[in-house]
Write a structure and sequence with these properties.
4 helices; 35% strand; 7-stranded antiparallel sheet; 176 residues; Alpha-D-Glucose-1,6-Bisphosphate, Chain A, domain 4; alpha+beta
């Protein structure tokens, strides 16, 4: 079930039930040049979008209850913990780059992926903020996707996550 849970946990529990029907074949290695890319415009201050990307309580609201554990320092671990359909997971990675109010980059491996925990099986996730207050563009790039089918699913799911983040940020700071 590596496809089900690898893609699912790459975005922290997003739409896992949609992947249950996917192929159950495991690759020996995921190293690929395939990337998923999505973006969204958010009507909020850049600092508010940054807060939504880095505050575990806020992340939990749009990442389907996932607990994010990190200190957001380069070289530090990042963990995503939770439960999905009665199964606990603890996914992990390392913070690769941080530029406050501009960029977050980390690598990532899912405990439920069914593939070995080794560097070539980690994906790289990059969040990039650009624009100005009240017109912020947030883009996400996910690298090292095993095939085009998973790329399509990743993009669909990242769009749902970004729409959830946008809703949380715009509602939180409009009503504040």
């Amino acid at each position: 079930m590596w496809e089900v849970f690898q893609n699912f946990h790459l975005i922290n529990c997003s739409l896992a039930s949609n992947f249950v029907q996917k192929s159950l074949q495991k690759p020996t290695s995921m190293k690929s040049n395939i990337k998923a890319q999505v973006s969204i415009n958010i009507h909020a201050a850049i600092s508010n979008v940054w807060e939504a990307l880095t505050n575990p309580d806020t992340i939990k609201k749009y990442f389907f209850g996932t607990n994010t554990i990190t200190d957001w320092k380069v070289g530090s671990p990042i963990k995503f913990k939770g439960e999905w359909e009665g199964k606990s997971y603890e996914d992990k990675g390392t913070i690769l780059e941080i530029q406050k109010h501009k960029l977050i980059k980390y690598d990532y491996w899912s405990s439920m992926s069914g593939i070995e925990d080794k560097p070539e099986n980690y994906v790289i996730v990059t969040y990039r903020l650009s624009g100005e207050d009240e017109n912020v563009n947030l883009s996400v790039v996910q690298e090292n996707i095993p095939d085009e089918k998973m790329k399509t699913h990743s993009e669909e799911n990242w769009n749902k996550v970004l729409n959830g983040l946008k809703k949380v940020v715009e509602e939180k700071f409009v009503s504040a």
